[in-house]
Write a structure and sequence with these properties.
This protein is an all-alpha fold. It is about 70% helix and about 0% strand. It is globular, with a radius of gyration of 18 Å.
């Protein structure tokens, strides 16, 4: 599913229909990793099947305790992109909240924060706060690329949790790879700076 989504020029409607039929057959046997990968591939394609997505969501819910933090973040991201109902996503958000300390890698942490930001889970301030604390803890330990920091900034602004401490941290972390950032990513970093009035935004502009 992911390979087909990455190469839409060779993934025809007939191919996705065959894939959908096969996924329905295999759904009861898919393990947590497979469920996360299949859903991720589906939402990246142009042929999202809402019925299959909901079936896979229900399968994932039954296996929720067995998801790794990485695949839980991936699953939640896919469900968010699939525009699943917020009530259906609440059990996954609750599980993610309990797994925040397990989110140590850059990509799994980024995936989780961006997914929560896309859902604009502003009602659960504690989840947003705990994710922000985990990001702060990992900023000094891991290598975040400027594009990662730009994506985090967008998610933080959606969640309304941007503060001066976060912005100053990303200023120092982004400097190494800032030359590799796109104009859009730079503008996102500048916007985060402007949100809290950090005047070092000049570093992103000049």
């Amino acid at each position: 599913a992911i390979l087909a989504a990455r190469h839409p020029e060779v993934a025809s409607l007939a191919m996705w229909q065959a894939f959908r039929a096969r996924a329905h057959e295999l759904a009861p046997m898919l393990d947590p990793e497979d469920l996360a990968l299949v859903l991720t591939g589906m939402v990246r394609s142009r042929y999202l099947d809402a019925e299959l997505a909901d079936e896979l969501r229900q399968r994932a819910l039954a296996r929720l305790p067995y998801f790794s933090s990485r695949h839980l973040a991936m699953l939640l991201s896919a469900l968010a992109k699939a525009r699943s109902d917020m009530n259906d996503l609440q059990p996954f958000l609750n599980e993610l909240h309990g797994r925040v300390p397990e989110l140590c890698g850059v990509q799994e942490l980024l995936t989780a924060v961006v997914a929560v930001g896309r859902l604009r889970v502003t009602a659960d301030r504690q989840l947003a706060s705990d994710l922000a604390k985990q990001v702060d803890a990992r900023l000094g330990a891991d290598k975040f690329h400027a594009r990662d920091l730009a994506a985090l900034s967008v998610a933080y602004m959606r969640l309304d949790i941007v503060d001066r401490s976060f912005v100053k941290n990303i200023l120092s972390c982004a400097s190494v790879t800032l030359h590799e950032a796109t104009p859009v990513e730079i503008s996102q970093l500048v916007m985060a700076c402007a949100t809290v009035g950090v005047d070092q935004a000049d570093e992103f502009i000049f």
